[in-house]
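hey m, so remember when u said the tokens were messed up on ur end? i reran from scratch. heres the input so u can diff it against urs
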Amino acid sequence: MLSALLHDDPHTVGPYRLLARLGGGGMGTVYLARTARGRTVALKTLHQRLTADTALRNRFQLEADAARVIGGRYGAAVHDADPSAPRPWLATEYVIGPPLDDAVQAGGPLPESAVRVVGAALAEGLAQLHRSEVVHRDLKPSNVMLTASGPKIIDFGIARAVGEDPRTHVGETVGTPAFMSPEQAASLEHGAAGDVFALAGVLVFAVSGHGPFGSGQPTDLLYRVRYAEPDLGGVPPELVPVLARCLAKDPAERPATGELATALAAGADPRRFADVLPDAVLREIARRGEGVWRQPPARQAPPPPEAPPQAAPGRPGMSRRRMMAVVGGGTLAGAGLAGGGMWAWLGGHDAAPDSGSHTVAKKPKAPSRLWTYAVRRPDSGGEVLLAGRGLAIPAGIVLCGVNPESGAATWQANMADTWRSATDGTKVYALREHDEGAALAVCEIDPVHGQPGKPLVESKAFAGTEARNQLLCVAKGRAYLVARASSGNHWYLLAVDLRRGRELWRSPVEAAADRIAPPMLCGAIDGDRVVLCRADSGTGFLRLTVHAVADGKKRWSGTQPYDGAPPGRLVQDDRHVYLGSKALDATRLSDGGIGWRFGDERNVGSSAGESRLYGAPALRDGVVYCTEGDRGVVAVDAVTGSLNWLEKDLKGRRLNRDVPPVVGRKYVYSLDDKGLRAVDLRTRRAVWTYETDATVLTADHARGRLYVREERATFALPLA
């Protein structure tokens, strides 16, 4: 899909004139480009910030080499490349047609005849790749393009030569979990047989509309890929034997690409490929082909210079009814004028400039990093924990203590999984390692050496060897856990007194849905309530449950539809818990009913192909902030659900809807495909973007810091 060039995109790259954007991600940007003689190409560039990384340059070179090996019949033909340029680039054939996942969405699962032709061609393409001792490693529906002449394999960004180290870093697994091979999921050698496994998963999706191992959290998918039987529901009986063999856990039991191509072609339709495609897919191919030759969208203009802050003209006072709603909701108390709370209530309009002023303020620049701490982010979770004078940063199987002023490491503790530790804002607590004892134990982490102290509370009634036991939260001297009983598969929510070292109460909860993750996603204390959230893989629903803090009795439980990555923490006040999905919902904590719902009848603009329209929310000073489609940040009153304001003039961005924004005194910070965007709370416009592929943001309001987590580093920025 074409989108406008940004004002700071280059005009040319090599001999190519850039016309529009085709897409982008954490590694680079793909443009539609054309030569002076009219050759149209897809031109991929590496992000400027990554050009100094030798390993990434080598990966870019290998991608170009792999694309040349597979050639124009089974892939996008390479026209030109310069991996050694100051900003490496690769120009390939512009493939006219939709990716397989878009095709299935447009016209439903493909008929068996089309899937056989697709599968045979892809197997032949992989065979050509494997003969040059290169494996793809990331074959998935979005990397298979359907054209009128046949399918093409694209995106060799993580391809590698056979025999190279299968991991980039120790403990790192690369690829897409839903379509990985079992050996790849285990960070072992992924050879040609691994690509066959992935191809079978792609064909199951093409003919049935679902992957062979469902959907859900990466940890769930990796477990099912390694140990569960594939789901071949919806696959025609004639295809089941060959696809089941390709999906064998043992690579030696899978057919070679040549054998697979022969088996699929035996029942293939001899007509032209276009003749076996559904009409909806053909229409999409035609639409994309026509779009290439239309006038490209105009390049976005640079943002106008910011005017200096001016006093706002007088406005009519608040209505009595509105004022009563504010006072009744307690939102005036402690609201800062620049923080989005009181300011939003007092009108929420831009200040009008003084007609006599001729001074133009300089556009703010993105701040510099205060420090950077090199540490790998966990596959899930990973929010920085604020613990008194220090920070605790989850990193894979360890928890790292970090000095918030300098970014220097202070301690390290082996804590296994992120759900086994928590902080009360002052100290860090953790469950004892599950292989160290049969009894469940909660310990305090030594802030100097990182070693767990003596158990503050210990219970033999619960299995300390259970890896899924979860420390939900710690508040007011109590720890709240979800743990499995010593006998049977019975799970409980329990409260323990850390000062007296004893259990206070326990309440039954549903057992864990899988063998890797704990039963609950997250939990929090709100007054006299314990609020729990869980999401069973593949259900498309979240379940919220409220228990009494005093005795653990369940007050209510309910489910609601939910798309996108489940929340890592609950966003709530004394009335509601807030969730963003197809709409922004406020669920009443009193009874589980819907307090209000925002977004049902709004035009949210582009959803970037996602069913999740509203992003994960943040709450500050009585206002709920989240992203709305790809329009930008929206601010909604927490009491009434009415719109306060919407970000202005945002275009050409794909917003990250899984990471909640962070709200400071001056800016609200939000992630998108360009990086970290700062939106001025006064003007409602983005004023700067810090280029990053981060996926975790944590606010430290007390120190005025924003902690940003990338895949291999965490850094601090000033929080304004």
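this time it looks ok to me. Residues 54-74 form the longest helix (21 residues). if urs says something different then somethings off w ur setup not the seq
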